[in-house]
Design goal:
Layout lengths: L10 E2 L4 E2 L5 H35 L6 H7 L17 E4 L2 E4 L7 H16 L1 E2 L6 E3 L2 H11 L6 H12 E3 L8 E3 L3
Antiparallel strand pairs: 1-2, 3-4, 5-6, 7-8
């Protein structure tokens, strides 16, 4: 069988090079299809724009119920609210700070001052005045100051043994056992 009887070959052995055959029909079909797709998409977007414009005209006098509630000072949107200072102000221990004509960051600055004060001094119980919460570093220092100072002798052994006392689950809390770690 000769090669001439087989399918059409892209290589012309007489000329010695490969022919450059471009499928122009496929390129034209693709271009026309792409153009039609663009035109259809444009038409659908134009129709959608018209529908949205009609909807906007119908709801022109409509007020959002959430916006209507915000006009009442007593009604706030549900938590979490993005603005911590509703009404352009912050309530602090010294009173209300008006932030109406200040920079947008002023709310954060005021809250940061209050947070820094809590970190520095801790949170105190208003009735008893005892510190309920404080920074970890400060709590460690206070604990070390109040810890027993026994370093040698029988006091040190007693402190060591007391620190090893452990109430086990099997005793139901009745007996404290020494647990060696």
């Amino acid at each position: 069988m000769s090669s001439a009887k087989h399918e059409k070959s892209f290589v012309d052995f007489e000329k010695g090079y490969e022919q450059n055959i471009i499928g122009l029909k496929g390129i034209i079909y693709f271009g026309v299809g792409l153009l039609l797709l663009i035109i259809i998409t444009f038409g659908l977007m134009w129709a959608l724009h018209g529908v949205l414009e009609e909807d906007a005209q119908e709801t022109k006098g409509f007020t959002n119920p959430m916006r209507a509630q915000m006009k009442d000072k007593d009604k706030l949107p549900p938590e979490p609210r993005l603005q911590a200072a509703p009404g352009f102000g912050v309530d602090t221990e010294t009173g209300r700070v008006n932030l109406e004509l200040k920079a947008p960051q002023a709310e954060y600055w005021e809250l940061r001052k209050a947070w820094d004060k809590i970190l520095a001094e801790g949170i105190r119980d208003p009735k008893t005045g005892t510190v309920m919460a404080m920074p970890v570093d400060k709590a460690k220092e206070l604990l070390l100051q109040r810890a027993p100072k026994a370093r040698f002798g029988p006091e040190a052994e007693k402190t060591l043994n007391d620190s090893k006392m452990h109430v086990s689950d099997s005793s139901a809390g009745r007996i404290a056992d020494v647990k060696w770690r």
